[in-house]
Amino acid sequence: RRLFFDTHALVCLLEENGFTTQQSEVIVSALVKIMDTNLDMIYKDMVTKVQQEIALQQVMSHIAGVKKDMIILEKSEFSALRSENEKIKLELQQIKKQVIDEITKVRADNKLNLNLEKSRVKELHAQQDRALTQTDRKIDTEVADLKTMLESHKLDNIKYLAGSVFTCLTVALGFYRLWI
C-alpha cells in the first residue's frame, strides 16, 4: 500500500518535539497500522471491477433467458402464457433486486466522483432549458399560425356574409321592380 504522508518526516518531527527515536517510530508504526486497518475496512465495502463485470454478465444472461422465454410464450397457449408470464415477473423482480443491489454498491463508489456528477447535472439542466425554450417557440409559432388562420377564416366569413347580403338585396330589388 502507498501511504499518503512521509513517515520519516513524521518521525523527525516527533523527535524535534521531544520524543525519542524509538518512541517516534512506535507512534508512526501505530499510525500506519491504524490507517491499514481503516483502508481494509473501506476496501471491504467497495465493489471491484471484476465483481461488477460478473454482475453485469449475470444480468445479461438473465436478459437472454427472458428473451428465450418470450419466444416460448408467443408460441404457447393462453394458459401457458399466463403461467410463464408469472414466472417472468418473478425473474424480473429478482433481476430488479440484483440490479438495485448493484446500484447501491455502485452509488457508494460514485460518492467519490460527486463533482463530476454535479457538472453532468448542470449540463442536463442546460439541455432541458434549451428543449423547453424550443418547445415554447414551437407553441408560440403554432399559436400565431392559428391566429392567422382564424383571421383568414373570419375574412372569408365576412366576404360570404357580404355576398349573401348583396345577393338578398339584389333579389329584393328585382322583386321590387317586378311589383312596381
Automatic annotation (TrEMBL):
> Localized where?
Mitochondrion membrane
GO terms under biological process: calcium import into the mitochondrion; positive regulation of mitochondrial calcium ion concentration
Show the stretches that span the lipid bilayer. 160-179
Name where it mostly resides.
mitochondrion
For this UniProt record, give its keywords in alphabetical order, as a comma-separated list.
Coiled coil, Membrane, Mitochondrion, Transmembrane, Transmembrane helix
Q: Which InterPro entries match?
A: CCDC90-like
CC terms in the record's Gene Ontology section: mitochondrial inner membrane
The record's family statement is: Belongs to the CCDC90 family.
The protein, known as: MCUR1 regulator
